[in-house]
Amino acid sequence: MLSNWISKGNTIKNTRVGARRVPGAGRQVHWPEMEARLYQKFKALRLLGRAVNRKWFTRIGKKIFTEEYPKQIACVSDSETENENAMKIVLGCTFSDGWFKRFKSRWKLSWRQRTNVAQKSPAEKQDKVILFLQYVRRNSIPRLNEGLFESGRYQRHHILNMDQTPLPFEFLSNRTYNIQGVESIWIKTCRSGWEKRQATLMLTVCGDGELHIKPLLIFAGKGTTPAMQIERAKYDDRVNVQFQKNAYSDEAITLQWLENDIYPYLRQDSSNIDIMPPSLMALDVFSGQRTSSVLRSFKEHNMVSAFIPEGCTSLLQPMDTMVNAVLKVKICKLMEEEMDEHPEFWEGTCNVGERRVLMTRIVGTAWEWIHKKKGSMIRKSFQQAGLSIAIDGSEDNLVKIKGLPSLAIMDWAEGGLDCNLNWQGKTGSGQIDFSLQGDIMDPDLSDSEESSDICGDYVLSSELISLDPAGFDPSLNIT
Description:
By secondary structure, the protein is of the alpha/beta class.
């Protein structure tokens, strides 16, 4: 053994520190050409978003093997059939589990859970993402007689993201540990039908990561009976509650939410109750919050509406990129802890009203927790989406869009202000004319598949300090 080490002295010296083998040691790859082609085909499919399973590797691998190694193919008698003349093809590679395990190790492949379902890859959405970032930058430039803050004309606690997410009455998992060998795996619900019942949770987070606005729970029904008034008194005061026929956030609830919660919060920083400080609201193109009435309300309250481009909420909306997933895990954990502490009640005599009361308490606790423990995560989500960064470009490196490693916010001066929708309700630079009476969007075309036009102005360009990126003076004092 010593003589063997001496003969390989130079090889050992050049081996990476900590390596357990010298280069070239271990089992050699028997069919390198086949594996290389198989890996390239796999990469091509994943770039197209196709799901690839174990059977695909075997099926395609066999085809490639027959092309690359015709001499390692044999026809033998098939003893598994009654036909004595039956033959079957045997390949030199059996594509066994052992081979597949080593193949995955060599090419660094792993079996992954799906994280996103989409018709287009992030790279195909790049133009929309850049257009959105340019719109946010353009609308962050201070206008005449406005102050300059860390993120332009907005204080960071005036940069908001509003989102709706379904909240089920039962958080039932599709997986559970069970005794081996049992074929039927069942999971009990507290009440029949609760696994299909759900509420809508309407949330607004702010760019400073602090808790400023209560969550809104929307339950199905009218909520006007005497019994409901008694139930309402039991709701957690950290949460607002509304009732709607289908537990749906429609235009009426959106307007009420703005008037009762969002605008009063923003007025707190204004010395004149009639003058609203400039604010930025990032939100998706959900139909209940892009009607003419809602858009006019934004405009009248000095709020710029930044609608996330279609199909890009998982890339640009802070609630979707970080907050929602963490919040729902916390809500689920709190619900499980409640069930563990009082199983005889929640699996026995509780009714739907008591469940609603519990949901308000758990949502209130989770909402406080995520701001107290995960405030830095919320702030980071706004920065990575390009919503709360400096307007002089010094913090552009903080923008981190999943799947788009290098983005540049260039030529942001061209386009409209205050709203990035067009008259069809599609995102772009916008072309809505707020001077029109009645609908500023065509309700019959709001669901059109036509792409949005990149044009339109909402206010005169003279109202800006500067619309020229090169002409903006970054030396202005930051308040």
